[in-house]
Amino acid sequence: MRKEEPLSGEQSMQIIHQMISQAKNNYSENGVSWLLWGILLFLASMSTYIFIDIKASDIFMGWNIFGVASIILLLYRVFSKPLKKQVKTYVDDLMKMVDLGFIACMGIVILAININAVSPRAGFCFLLMLFAFLMIIKGGAIRSRSLQVGAVVNWLGALGILLVPEFKHVMLIVAAAVLTGYIIPGILLMRKYKTTNK
Questions:
Q1: Could you tell me the CA-to-CA distances from 178 to 33, 36, 75, 85, 134 in Å, in that order?
Q2: CA distances from residue 99 to 2, 11, 86, 175, 192 in whole angstroms, order as listed
Q3: Rounded CA separation 133/148 (Å)
């Protein structure tokens, strides 16, 4: 059996620099998905607030529309082919696993709300915690301060949900949290992406 030659210190450092450089250049966000999901979540939250206020028979109609739109967008994302061939890295694969885990957890929380296993208040508290978890990971991966701030706001929103007496105020908290955690970072990431890729 042949013994592998140990790498010199210079060779090791060169490999590390190459890996860091490749990870930095390959994984980026253009902000579109953050902005799109943020707008859908914001509209669903605000519509529920309005439906509660006007005493509508189906206060969750906005969330049902959001659910259908989400399924269509996710199917499109899964089955559409990327415009250009990209070299996949470990970071790309890791972020796909993070997305998959997030979607699975979110699906379970939504199911739990729909079958009355948890109250809507608890369910939305759990959802904001999940949103924050996704934001802190993705924000760390792309060094986005706005996503990291959004994560903190979403965790604070989850705590706030436990303290407000009326469910319609829960919807205001969710709307404010997604505005801060999805929409604003989405706009900032889009601007940064356009500036970088000019």
A1: 13, 11, 22, 32, 12
A2: 41, 34, 19, 22, 22
A3: 10
DSSP label at residue 85:
-
Domain parsing of the chain, residue ranges: 30-82+89-196
Sequence-ordered strand ranges (E) for the chain: none
The answer on pLDDT for 71 being more than 90 is no
The separation between the first and the last C-alpha atoms of the chain, rounded to the nearest angstrom, is 52
Cα gap 58→78, rounded to integer Å: 31
Q: pLDDT tens across 32-67, in order? A: 889 999 999 999 999 999 999 999 998 988 888 888
Predicted TM-score (pTM) of the model is 0.79
C-alpha to C-alpha distance for 47 and 56, rounded to whole angstroms = 11
Helix spans in 27-87 (H): 32-53, 61-79
Distance CA 49, CA 167 (A): 8
Strands (E), 37-164: none
Identify the band that residue 128 occupies on the pLDDT scale cut at 50, 70 and 90: very high
